[in-house]
Amino acid sequence: MKSLVLAEKPSVGREIARVLKCNNKAKGYIEGNNYVVTWALGHLVTLAEPDNYDSKYKQWRMEDLPMLPEKMKLKVIKQTSHQYQVVKNLMNRNDINELIIATDAGREGELVARWIMDMAKWKKPFKRLWISSQTDQAIRDGFSNLQPGPVYNNLYDAAVCRAEADWLIGLNVTRTLTCKFNAQLNAGRVQTPTLALIVNREAEIKKFKPVDYWTIRADFGDYFGDWRGNKDGKINDYTKAQELEAKFKGQPGIIKDIKTETKSEPPPLAYDLTELQRDANRRYGWSAQKTSSVLQDLYEQHKLVTYPRTDSRYITNDIVPTLGIRLKAMGVGPYMSLVKPLLGKTLKPGKRFVDDSKVTDHHAIIPTEQPLNLSVLNEDEKRLYDLIARRFIAVLYPPFKYDQTTIITEIAGEKFISRGKVITDRGWRAIQAGISDKENADSDAEPEQTLSQHSINEQLAVKKIKINNHKTKPPARYTEATLLTAMEHSGKFIEDEELRESIKGSGLGTPATRAEIIEKLIRTSYIERHGKELIPTSKGIQLVDLVPTALRSPELTAQWEQRLTNISRGKEKKTVFIADIRQDTIDLVNVIKTDTSSYRADNVSKTKCPACGKNMLLVNGKRGKVLACPDRNCGYRQEENEDIFSRKGNSRATQRLIAQYSDQEELGTSLGEKLKAAMEKKNSG
Questions:
Q1: Mean pLDDT of the chain
Q2: Are 353 and 270 in contact, with CB atoms under 8 Å apart?
Q3: Does 273 have pLDDT greater than 70?
Q4: Annotated catalytic sites, by residue?
Q5: Cα separations in angstroms, 225 against 63, 263, 409, 445
Q6: Is the CATH code 1.10.460.10 the one for domain 173-205+477-593?
Q7: Which residue ranges make up each domain of the chain?
Q8: What is the bridge-based pairing of β-strands 527-530 and 533-536?
Q9: What pTM was computed for the model?
């Protein structure tokens, strides 16, 4: 008898097959003496479409909403049905006595496998491979420690709840908005509150009116000091600043206090996915999606880093004995001199890095034991690996230490503050030299300078008093780095203190989904990238006003994410969650139905739809700009520069139009008559 191993992707399946010594390749699987390894192509099975429940849902009509199937159905995805059939046939083989789930070790990976098992009616025993890296040793260790499949039933329940909630909320709200406003509008439980963050920030920027304020700086010769007659040294009245300047002129400075403190700055925490995406955006200008893509190659193809889609910045105690091996494997090229001081001693990292209680499914992203060969990496892979490698080494280095000296100098009884720093041990900062994060600098802190030796009560001549004019600045537009932070910590936008505390640690989406949410907002023309900044479009701003208040707030979706986490940990029942989601769906649909707002598209082109005659909209397509009919019942689309009546475009575009409308009798006029009329109009013009 043999075990059937189900991986999520062909590339992972081939690697597992190699480690398990499966050499007989067939279409869609690889077989060996003890194992048969096959794979999905991402999802092979998904939730059924509305018209799979009732043919009336083929048309989008307000009277049919909300759609609330009693039991959610599954269907095989048409595009990958060939591979599903391969997996199903293998599951039905008499010599297969168990299944080993080897899909990605997380909520979505569990869903990929379980839906296939459900659809294929798998009834035999199954086990779970749960690994955090793709190295040969990790795969071998994982197969030596397979877990019973039912151990992960709660994780599967959470995954199903997430999928069904997205179907119920997303499809119903999208259809209701589209029918209500006769425009292609879509909304979702995570997408919409994320968009609302960007729209609200833009509104704050537009409403912002800069206000002047002034600061005063004194030059004492070999150092300077900033007036601190109030908490932040800002003066809102220029007359007051002038009065102080006159008061100080001709007066000496007297040193009233000199204080030197030894300070220590611990290393940063290791990376989770969100923090790595933030850093790559700040340093390289990368999108979150690009970081995820490059990271996946480092994990899956090169096997140089551990599982990417993690929300933890810590490792567990069982990883500590492997740290030396990992350092040795990566100790080449620019990292050789950095790891050398660590290899000669016993590593005993503290709670800042090792904390079992702060690791759930996967630990922080760190290098694997795979020997590093930089020559096989492309430039993007080298840059991202460098961030991970340096952060990993930095976490194991000693703290950054310095002596900070603060001098308080008085002029005419008013305090001036001066700060200076002397580094005594660069510690972990030596590892990340040149890539320090300037965004985290405190703009209100006193500027650093070199302070020479002085003594208390020393009197100094004041060389110069200068009034500096400043203006208050509007809030900064979101970048992907700052938006990821806002999504991760969405609780801070919730006014209710008790609720805010209850969802601490939750947020909008998960580390694995946030990048795709941002990309979807761009694809659907709700936001645009302007350099690093994310700016809402007119469509996005209008949508936030049109969706119900509950859906645009992070409060509702953050609660859902927290509940999904509770379900995965066995703290809440799936049935209770879904019942609440169904009621939320009813409420949201009713709010939109009774809304009296209006929507105005600002991307209307001069091109007429050849099917119904309406002016088409210019929208983003997968391969560039696309012209789309605004009428949902029509739905005609064509490439921006494609002329349906030209010799070049006529055959392709006309055939597509015929295929698109040949079965839509509800249009009232035959397609042939529409095309004939449109062509006559074109020729006569």
A1: 88
A2: yes
A3: yes
A4: 307
A5: 71, 21, 7, 12
A6: yes
A7: 2-145, 173-205+477-593, 212-267+400-471, 273-396, 604-684
A8: antiparallel
A9: 0.82
